[in-house]
Amino acid sequence: MTKFTDLNLAPKVLKAIEDVGYETPTPIQAGAIPPALEGRDVLGIAQTGTGKTASFVLPMITMLARGRARARMPRSLVLCPTRELAAQVAENFDQYTKYMKLTKALLIGGVSFKEQDALIDKGVDVLIATPGRLLDHFERGKLILSDVKVMVVDEADRMLDMGFIPDIERIFGLTPFTRQTLFFSATMAPEIERITNTFLSAPAKIEVARQATSGENIEQYVVMFKGSRRDRAASEKRKLLRALIDAEGDKLQNGIIFCNRKTDVDIVSKSLNKYGYQASPIHGDLDQSQRNATLEKFRNGEIKILVASDVAARGLDVASITHVFNFDVPSHAEDYVHRIGRTGRAGRDGKAIMICEPRDEKNFADVEALIAKEIPRLENPLGNAPVEEETEVKSDKPKRSRSRKRKTEDAPQVEPQAETQVEALPREESRKSEPKSDSHSRRGRGRKEDDNKVVGLGDHLPSFIALSFEERQAG
Ligand code: AMP
């Protein structure tokens, strides 16, 4: 078996790897590092979770250890599709260069131009960027790319999905023809193939198998969920999540809840806390020290539930996570495998429960296709939402939901300002608060004209009758 010491990495890099605790190189590392260190182009077909970040960062920093950066002329460039990924690469870079004097700048949204410009002016060894932001800097004349010796394109297939390929082509054109290119993609779509044929020169091609499809020791379930009404779906989904957590009882010792969106990470976490569950959010927008503190608390058991985005949970290595909840079906099927792989580690048993809404069905089909098995359906512990409510929504009462929204959930310790989104009342509660009368029961404003009808008087309602209604209602 290949060892890190077989790979010709700089001694200071090896020392940092030892500190991080990696014992052996992963297949993509064992395959990509040697040709990269020989100065060859590399085409790595690998997805996240395979250790691909280190497979380009480690040889890059070994090569950069020789030589120095010149003002405004970065020596290497890493392009990532999202700022979360770029931040993750930057984090890895910091870890692996802890015994070296290499500098980096991070060009992503949310990081000030001014500070990064100052770094670039001084000269950086590595520029880690999203394509758009890099081009912004370039166009402002702050950046010269003619000294780039190594260019990395990470997650090219996501770049394609996000429409960044023209930017990538342009950036390729701005860097010297003689640069070395390390190019990574999980899949080889025809467009990706075209780019690699155009811009890579006789690359060493390393393809690593998809991560083992979902572990046999992980029990997997899915709950099909449809909100009773559009404006209630979000809070009903959170209620369902709580019910799923409750149903696990003491078996749930610690768990991660994955959400597709960062906003949901925050909302779900706040909502859980409001209901007395100990949860903390973790996503790419939180600063590193906050994330580290949260992870530490999760590791030592102070926090039982982590609500996370995919990127933030990467690199989270806790051996004994009992449960993974997928609040959403991930939009990339591979992420499902990574997510549930957080539990059931080191031969332990784990449980993964996912909520699937009608809009997730396509993604759900992709997940089942990827893992090549059917995920057992779990009954909704709350039962299925009654359909009558839905029919009612479709009737002409656009303001009904407004009056409910003003109220908060029947939480034990209601802290309205703690919730970024005011939640609807649970159904039983809202029924109680509704007057028994019908459509013209509340408020004059926003009512459909039909609401003014009084049975027996047809369309020509004398105005004094309408007036008396308004007054009575207001009282
Ligand atoms: P990546 O595919 O780069 O997103 O890496 C996935 C995870 O694997 C990260 O948490 C890394 O810290 C971890 N990792 C990378 N290389 C190794 C290794 N050789 N041994 C163990 N873990 C690793």
TrEMBL record:
InterPro entries registered for this protein in UniProt: DEAD/DEAH_box_helicase_dom (IPR011545), DEAD/DEAH_RhlB (IPR044742), DEAD_box_RNA_helicase (IPR050079), Helicase_ATP-bd (IPR014001), Helicase_C-like (IPR001650), P-loop_NTPase (IPR027417), RNA-helicase_DEAD-box_CS (IPR000629), RNA_helicase_DEAD_Q_motif (IPR014014)
User: What protein is this chain from?
Assistant: DEAD-box ATP-dependent RNA helicase RhpA
Domain Helicase ATP-binding, residue spans: 33-206
* Span(s) of short sequence motif Q motif: 2-30
Q: Which PROSITE patterns match?
A: DEAD_ATP_HELICASE, HELICASE_ATP_BIND_1, HELICASE_CTER, Q_MOTIF
Please provide the record's keywords in A-Z order. ATP-binding, Cytoplasm, Helicase, Hydrolase, Nucleotide-binding
Catalytic activity line of the entry: ATP + H2O = ADP + phosphate + H(+)
GO cellular component terms, alphabetically, are: cytosol
Molecular function in Gene Ontology: ATP binding; hydrolase activity; nucleic acid binding; RNA helicase activity
All copies of the Helicase C-terminal domain together span: 244-393
From start to end residue, where is composition biased (Basic and acidic residues)? Answer: 425-453
